[in-house]
Amino acid sequence: MSYYFVIISPTDTPLFELTFGTSKAGGDGVARFRNGETARYMNQFIVHAALDVVEEVQWLSPNMWLKVIDNYAPTNSHISCFITGTNVRFMLLHQPSAITNASAGSRSSTISSTSVPQNPTSPQTEEAIRQFMTEVFELWVKTLMNPFYTIGKPIKSPVFRQRVVGAGRKWL
Amino acid sequence: MAGAPPGHTIPSYAASHAGSPSRHMSQYPSTTVTTTTTSSSALVSGTPAPTSTLSSTLRYPSTRKTIYDRNLNRSRNAELSRSSFAYLFMEMVSYAHRRVKGIQDFEKRLNEQGYPLGLKLLDLLLYRAGPGASSTSLTSSSSTSSSGGGAAHRPLRLLPLLTLLTTKLYPLLFSRPADSLEQSTTNPAEYMIIDNTPLTNQYISVPKEMNQLSVAAYIAGIIEGVCDGAGFECKASAHNTGTDVWPNRTVFLIRFEDHVLEREKELERQGVK
After folding, report:
1. Closest chain A residue to B268 measured between Cα atoms?
2. CA-closest candidate to residue B264, choices B228, B224, B231, B235
3. CA distance readout (Å), A8 to A12, B124, B225
C-alpha cells in the first residue's frame, strides 16, 4: 500500500505533506503509486476533491475520525479523513499495491487478504489508520502548543516530520 | 536569516543544503543561543527546515527533549503564578494603551491578542477531553502513551459549544467554571457568559475617563477564538456590569453570525446532537 498524507488548514491550505509506503509485511516504506509520475499532482488533486465530502459529513457526526470518506476508482485510491476541533483536516490517501508489481506480487501470495498492506477497506486497516491519525493528532496539538508556531502556517519542524514518519512506520 | 556570514557556514553541510536557502539556526555560532531548557526546546521545534533530511543541522537542547517529547497531560493540573500573570498582563495592557486612539481600538487590540490563544486551546481541550487522555502517565518516553486523545467529540451544536466554554475552557484558564451562562431574551443569536471576578480585571485600575474599557476583552478574544475555530463564527465582547457585591462583574456577549443559526436550525431538524 502507498500513502499520501496531508494536513489541510480550515482555509484549504496544505500545512504538511508526506508520501510514504507501507512498512508492514516486509514493505520497504517507499511509495509506489500506480499512476507513476503523475501521482504527485494527481494525489493532491484527488485529496482536495475529497474535501467537499468532508464538508458534507463533518456536521453530521461529532467524531473526529471520519473513516474512509471518498475513493477514486481509476487508481483504486481511498481517502480517509480525521478532522480536529479547529476544522483542520488530516487526509490520508491510501492505495493498495498493484498486483502487476513483480516484487509486491510475489509477496502478496503469502499475505492474507485482510492484512493492512493489501486490503484498503478491512476493519484492520481502518483501525491502523485511526491509530495513525490519533498519534498525528497528538503531535499536531504539541505543534500548536509551540508559541513559535503561528496558526495557518506550514509545519516545518523536522522533529514533527520525523515523528509522523515514525507513526506511519508503526501503524501502516 | 539566509544571508548568514559565510564564515559561519559549517563546511560539512549535506549537499542538499548547500544550494538551498536553508534557514537553519545552526548557521549561527552555537554561543548565541543560551537559553533555559524549556525555552530552547520550544526554539528547536519551531526551527524551520525545508527538507526531511534529519542531519546534524538540527539543534537540540542539552537534554535532547523537544516540545514533542513532553506529555500533553503533564501540566494538566499545574497552576501558574498569579502574580506573574498579573505582571505580564499589566505589561500587555500598558503596551496597548500607548498605541491606541480610543477605547474601541484598545479592546480590539486585546481581543486580537486573545484570539490565537483560543484557536490553539480548542484542540488542546478536545485532546484532553478524550478518553485515555486522563491516564496519569507522567512518563514522556513514548508518544503513544495517551492513545485515545483523538476520540473526543467536536461541538456541532451551540449548546455543547457553550458548555465547553464554561465548563472546560474556564477551568483550564482560571481553575473554576464560569459563573453563569444565559441566552439573550431579545436576540436568539446572543449568548452571555457571566464572570463575577474576571482575573484580568483584578489588578488593572482603569482611569475614570476610560470607564467604558473592559480589559476582559482579552478573555473575550479567547472565547471568540474557540468559537471561530470550532466553526461558529461570532463576535465576542466584554462589558462591565459591576454590582455592589461584584464590582468587577463582567458579561461576555457572544453574538453568532446568521449562518451559524441557520445551520443550527438545520442540524436540529436532522436530529444531530
Report:
1. A60
2. B231
3. 6, 18, 19
Give the residue from chain B lying closest to A154, CA to CA.
B48
Segment A102-149, tens digit of pLDDT:
444 444 444 444 555 567 778 888 888 999 999 999 999 999 998 889
Enclosing H/E stretch for A68: strand A65-72
Backbone φ/ψ region at A163: left (φ over 0), alpha (ψ -120 to 50), beta? alpha
User: pLDDT (tens digit, 9 = 90+) per residue, B68-108?
Assistant: 888 888 777 788 889 999 999 999 999 998 888 888 899 99
Neighbours of A159 (CB within 10 A): 22
Instruction: Cell numbers for B92, please give them.
Output: 500587555
In angstroms, how far is CA A73 from the centroid of its own chain?
17
Non-local (6+) Cβ contacts of B75 within 8 A are: none
**Residue A58 in grid coordinates:** 463533518
pTM of the model: 0.77
Helix (H, G, I), strand (E, B) or coil at B256: strand
Positions of E strands within chain B: 180-183, 190-195, 234-240, 250-256
Place of cell 465547553: B164
Best residue in A141, A162, A164, A165 for a mutation probing chain B (most B CBs within 10 Å):
A141
Q: What is the pLDDT of residues B213-260, one digit of tens each?
A: 889 999 999 999 999 999 999 999 999 888 888 888 999 999 999 999
Domain with CATH 3.30.1380.20 in chain B: 103-270
Contacts of A126 in chain B (CB under 8 A): none
The residue type of A115 is: S
C-alpha cell at B222: 479567547
The architecture that CATH gives domain B103-270 is: 2-Layer Sandwich (3.30)
Q: Greater confidence, B146 or A159?
A: A159
* pLDDT of res. B151: 57
For domain A2-171, give its CATH number from 3.40.50.150, 1.10.3720.10, 3.30.450.70, 3.40.50.2300: 3.30.450.70
How many percent of chain B have pLDDT more than 70?
71
Across the interface, do A159 and B58 touch by the CB < 8 Å criterion? yes
Amino acid at residue number B44:
V
Q: Report yes or no for ipTM above 0.85.
A: no
Tell me chain B's radius of gyration from C-alpha atoms.
23
Would the CB atoms of B229 and A141 count as touching at under 8 Å?
A: no
